[in-house]
Amino acid sequence: MHAAAERETLVSVQGVVKHFPIKQGIVFKKEVARVHAVDGVDLEVRSGETVGIVGESGSGKSTLARCVTGLHPVTSGRILFEGTDITKLSGAGLKAFRKDVQMIFQDPYGSLNPRRRVGSIIGDPFAIHGLASGAERKKRVQELMELVGLNPEHYNRFPAEFSGGQRQRIGVARALAVRPKLIVCDEPVSALDVSIQAQVINLLKDLQREFGLTYIFIAHDLSVVRYVSDRVGVMYLGRIGEAAAAGDLYERPRHPYSAALLSAASIADPDEAERAERIVLIGDVPSPIDPPSGCRFHPRCPKAEERCTVDEPELEVKEGDAADHLTACHFPVEPGENLAREHAGIRQESTEPELPEVEQ
C-alpha cells in the first residue's frame, strides 16, 4: 500500500450529488420529490490501482459510476480527471475525455447490439475517434479479439452466437480498443457462471498489468471485490460509509454496516464457515426519496444513539486506524466487538442449514 499511496491521483470525486426528479402531471409536469441516488460522495482513485465499490442494491454504486464516466450529469459537486473538472466539459473536450474512460456493463448481451456483427461493435471506438479504418481497423479488431481470448475468425458473427462469457469478453475488447486510462466495471461478472467469472476476472487483472489500467470495480460479491481491489469503498443509501485498503477493511471493519455486510460473504472453508456468525440487519433500507436525517444507517444500526439521528458523521480517520482508513460513524466498531452478541439491534443467524428430523 506504500507504493499505491505514491501513485498520482487519476480521479477525484468531490462532494458529488446526483438526484433524479420525480414529476407528476399530464400537460404541466411538476416536480414533487427527488430520488437521492448519490448524496455527497468523496472518493479518490489513483493511477494503476483498482478501487472496489460494494453495497446493497439501490445504494448508488452504478449511478456513481455513470457520473464518473460522464453518462449522468451531476446535480452538484466536481469530478476531476487528471485535474480537469469533467462536469463542465462539452464538445471536443468531452469526446477526448470519453476516449480515456471506458465502461464494461453488467449485462453482456444487453450492452451489445444484437443486429450488428461483433467486428463492427468492437470497431466502433476506432471509427468514432478516427483511429483506424478499412483493413487497418479490421486488423486491430482481430488483434483485440485474440487479446481477450476470442477467435479472430469469428469477426463476422453476431452476439447471439457467443456464450455469456464470450459476450463479456467482447465488451472488454470494445472498452480496451482506444487504450483508456480508466475502465469502470459495473458488476461485470454478476451475470456469469462462477467458473466463467474467474476467467473474466483473471483476464481483467492480466490486462491491468499489461496496459497499466486503472479500474473502478463495482460488485455484489464481496469475495470478488476483495480479490481484485487495492482499496474498497462501502456505500449505503447514496453515501460512502467506509473506505480503506482491501485487506484492512475486510480484517477490521469499523462501520457497523460494513461489519454486517462482510458477515454475509460466503466462506469456502467449511470448518471456518461453521464457526462464522452471520449478522442479519433488522428493518428495511429506507427510501432514497426521503432518506433519514443524520447518519442514514441509524434506523438499522445496533449502536445508534440520539446523536446519530441529527448529526451526520464525517468520513474521517478514527483513532488507531491507518491514514487511508476512513469511517463515517460516531460510534465505530471496536476490535473484538461482536455486534450480534452484544447489541439488541442486530440478531444472530446460524449459517448451518437445518436438517429434517428423522423418525426413529
TrEMBL record:
SMART domains: AAA (SM00382). Residues 334-360 are annotated as: Disordered. Pfam families: ABC_tran, oligo_HPY. InterPro entries: AAA+_ATPase, ABC_transp_ATP-bind, ABC_transporter-like_ATP-bd, ABC_transporter-like_CS, Oligopep_ABC_C, P-loop_NTPase. Residues 22-262 form the ABC transporter domain. It comes from the Bacteria. Residues 351-360 have a biased composition (Acidic residues). Residues 339-350 have a biased composition (Basic and acidic residues). Keywords: ATP-binding, Nucleotide-binding, Transport. PROSITE patterns: ABC_TRANSPORTER_1 (PS00211), ABC_TRANSPORTER_2 (PS50893). GO terms for molecular function: ATP binding. Belongs to the ABC transporter superfamily. PANTHER family: D,D-DIPEPTIDE TRANSPORT ATP-BINDING PROTEIN DDPF-RELATED, TRANSPORT ATP-BINDING PROTEIN. This is ATP-binding cassette domain-containing protein.
